[in-house]
Amino acid sequence: MTELGKLPGVGNRTAQRLAFHLLRTSAEDANALAAAIRDVKEKIGLCEVCFNLAEGPRCRICLDERRDPSLICVVEEPGDVIPVERTHEFRGLYHVLGGALSPIDGVDPEDLKIAELYRRVTAAAEQDEPVAEVVLATNPTTTGEATALHIAAGLRERAPEVQVTRLASGLPVGADLEYADEVTLGKALAGRRTL
Ligand SMILES: [Zn+2]
User: Fold this and answer.
1) How far is ligand 1, taken at its centre, from the CA of residue 25, in Å?
2) Cα of 21 to ligand 1 centre, how many Å?
3) How many angstroms does the Cα of residue 93 sit away from the middle of ligand 1?
4) According to a count of CB atoms within 10 Å of the terminal CB, is the N or C end of the chain lower?
5) pLDDT by residue (tens digit) across 174-183?
6) Long-range contacts made by residues 79-85, C-beta under 8 angstroms, separation at least 24?
7) How far is the CA of 62 from the centre of ligand 1 (A)?
8) DSSP structural state of residue 169
């Protein structure tokens, strides 16, 4: 019960409901759930290229050869990849930062995968597969905006030939990408502007 209550978004009441549900469930189903939880812990890691969740060294998006490697969409968390995918507006690859800059909370550039993004972009240029555009799809929050501006400046310095864009406004300010509906997010992607 207390373990269930530690799950995000699960309060005491929900933990109790889950516990009752597990009580009624067959041993087989309960074991399958336990195995699934163990599997996540054992098999899921971060993609070595984009830091999205991956089973194995690379995520399924990086492994998909139909994706356009000249386009990189930068998001804060692995959970932000899902809503962007749902829009069907984006056919490039991702780069997951692992958060947003927030000096007050002690989150500095070196705590995020920012240097990895710069390396990825410059390495692609050296390998003659240049990145044409980096879409900064960090959340429309104070920290998300600060992160986007920081990365835009860093990319201008290191890879001035790369176009850096930001999602169009229209997303609810202060909200998380994760909660944006796909129509709004799709429009924000389609109407992205150069930074
Ligand atoms: Zn990946």
Assistant:
1) 36
2) 36
3) 7
4) N
5) 677 877 788 8
6) 79/178, 80/137, 80/139, 80/176, 80/177, 80/178, 81/52, 82/178, 83/177, 83/178, 83/180, 83/182, 83/185, 84/137, 84/177, 84/185, 84/189, 85/61
7) 4
8) B
pLDDT of res. 1:
63
Residues of the chain with pLDDT under 50: none
In sequence order, the β-bridge partners of residue 194 are 165
- The rounded Cα 187 to chain-centroid distance in angstroms is 19
Residue 156's alpha-carbon distances to 28, 93, 101, in angstroms, are 56, 20, 18
Between CA 29 and CA 25 the distance in angstroms is 6
Ligand 1 centroid vs 70 CA: distance in angstroms?
A: 14
Q: What is the reported pTM? A: 0.82
Q: How far is the CA of 194 from the centre of ligand 1 (A)?
A: 24
